[in-house]
Amino acid sequence: MKNIFVFIWRNHFVFLFLLLQSFAVYLLIQNNNYQRAGFINSANTLSGNFLNIYSNITEYFSLKKANEILAAENAELKKHHPNSYFRYDVQVFNINDTVYRQQYNYRAARVVNKSVNKRNNYLTLNRGSLHGVEPDMAVITPVGVVGIVKNVSENFCTVISMLHVNSKISAQIKNNNYFGSVVWNGNNASLVDLVDIPSHVKLHKGDTVLTTSFSTIFPEGIIVGTIEEFELKAGDNFYTIKVKPGTDFRSVTNVYIVGNLLKNEQQQLEEDSSDD
Description:
elongated; Thrombin, subunit H; 29% strand; 2 domains; alpha+beta; single chain; 5 helices; six-stranded antiparallel β-barrel
């Protein structure tokens, strides 16, 4: 306290000057309309800027609370979004024709889980036995093969991905109709192998690989992928062919489950024939 009094005493002339100056300004503003109006405008501007800064500061420190409120509101809204409800009905696309009998139907489904970085990769779809899904149905996208249904529950099914070491899909080269099998060696998720293509076949990079009619699972002509590279090693009778899948397994979300309406009839006939 003593230091404060000492400071004031040492600078009392300065304080006296400021006091008299302030009083002079007050008299000037109080007795002159022009100066009074200018002062009021300046004071309003200064006050507005100060309040604006104060408002920005308080809003910044209240962002956490605002975010919590928004998060709660979003959560409540998502509860009522259609995607939060499980649909027990499913669209089945049928084709009616007086000349051709329908062989395949298609059920739209969504991928709810998947893997791409394992030796045995699977997908889980949001369709099951309640929607008519059965094991050994094909799964495709508009741009390529995905895999084959393995296990089915009431509301879900698991799919053996084409990126599975036990996957084997009958496929043919579009340009020449030579066929073999598409398999995966478990290494590169961006490439699969087309095997059993004889060495005398002419190949070109970019040739399209399609499913064949020899399978009771996949319709004929579904894109498997395109030839990325091929090699004929000395002494081999078959090519080593790398195929880039048409389906991007890392981003696939919507698929079709394909059912062969004539599969049982064909399989029964072939079993009866093999017994002879």
